[in-house]
Specification:
5-stranded parallel beta sheet; about 15% strand; Rossmann fold; about 350 residues; 4-stranded parallel beta sheet
């Protein structure tokens, strides 16, 4: 696809799934999600927890994953993502369990809620409604039922901000994280600035999100970051899978240096890979050295390498910038590949078959 063809793509200009609308409203989602979350009331006993478990699947836990990574230096207790039916054995009366489901109908999360209560965990439900909201009312646990009015696409992966802001608000109320109100209120500004840089009205020549999508047209995206980027890499991988309907993979330095490089020695495979390196001056100095050396080796092995340096003063601000950038890249990649980004026919087929079993 040419640059001109991408700029005029009907997937972008007609946008029947309203993906672009949701991406453009990211700042509004953050603001609206934070405002709605202030109504959530939590018992004072919830402050005594020693661990946090986030029960959710797909887009419903991406916001929490980003928080876990970006706020790693501020979180007072460990946080774990539980993307499964079963809770870890360590969940007990001192565990804060978030049951998060955008739709409120995710069967794994619906299974986790009564299991968490059986363990006497401190439970908070985060949802847009459905059976999960009804369960929260039935069991009389704190409920954050948001109205996702700033996510016109209706897709969980495009409304990540709502769950993210809910969990962040709860963590602040319980004094489990040191993030000021001022810091949180600045996040929509970061998102809005990213939207102006990468939105659809910016042509390819002035839009690096579109440029990267074009470069990925016939390549397998390989996402590489470090430290605070883990949740963002996971989120971008998810969006590429669902929006662009293609394979992607993500790794972190320094760990990938201890295994992945040997796995890329097959040049027939490596030449099909286009790496996106997420750079940041705040990384450990040795990790920054590893980025430079790893880039050199990847190129020697035949891979193409691009870089992106998120903007912001803190890991959380950079995470918001990267989340916005990644969302647009995945949408533009869908246009490059000529697939409908909002539709998830294979996932829907699987769900329909599960409902029969």
């Amino acid at each position: 696809m040419t640059s001109a063809q991408l700029d005029r793509s009907p997937i972008l200009t007609r946008d029947s799934g309203k993906v672009g609308d949701s991406l453009d409203r990211f700042a509004d989602q953050l603001r609206d999600g934070w405002h709605q979350a202030q109504a959530v009331k939590l018992p004072s006993t919830y402050r005594d927890v020693t661990a946090i478990a986030i029960c959710g699947m797909g887009g419903s836990h991406l916001g929490a994953d980003i928080l876990r990574s970006a706020l790693a230096k501020e979180l007072k207790v460990p946080m774990t993502i539980v993307a499964d039916y079963n809770l870890p054995a360590w969940v007990n009366h001192q565990t804060l369990v978030f049951c998060s489901s955008y739709s409120g109908s995710t069967e794994e999360t619906l299974t986790a809620l009564p299991a968490a209560l059986k363990c006497k965990a401190r439970v908070v439900v985060v949802t847009n409604g459905g059976k999960l909201a009804a369960q929260a009312t039935k069991f009389n646990v704190p409920l954050y039922q948001y109205t996702a009015s700033e996510n016109p696409s209706g897709q969980p992966r495009l409304g990540v901000a709502y769950g993210m802001m809910a969990i962040l608000a709860c963590l602040r109320k319980l004094k489990l994280v040191d993030v000021s109100e001022k810091d949180v209120e600045h996040l929509p500004t970061i998102a809005w600035e990213a939207t102006k840089r990468y939105s659809v009205n910016k042509p390819v020549k002035n839009n690096i999100a579109k440029q990267l999508a074009l470069q990925w047209e016939k390549k397998v995206p390989l996402l590489i970051g470090a430290e605070w980027t883990a949740g963002n890499l996971h989120s971008l991988n998810n969006q590429i899978n669902e929006n662009a309907k293609t394979l992607a993979a993500w790794y972190q330095l320094p760990d990938l240096n201890h295994h992945l490089l040997e796995g890329l020695r097959n040049r027939a495979i490596t030449k099909q890979i286009h790496v996106l390196m997420i750079l940041d001056d705040s990384y450990n100095k040795r990790t920054q050295t590893r980025f430079a050396l790893t880039t050199k080796i990847l190129k020697q092995l035949g891979a193409t390498v691009s870089t992106y340096k998120p903007r912001g003063a803190t890991p959380m601000e950079k995470a918001i910038d990267l989340l916005a950038f990644g969302g647009y890249v995945s949408w533009y990649l869908a246009a490059v590949r000529n697939v409908k980004p909002a539709d998830i026919p294979t996932v829907n087929y699987l769900k329909a078959q599960l409902a029969k079993s």
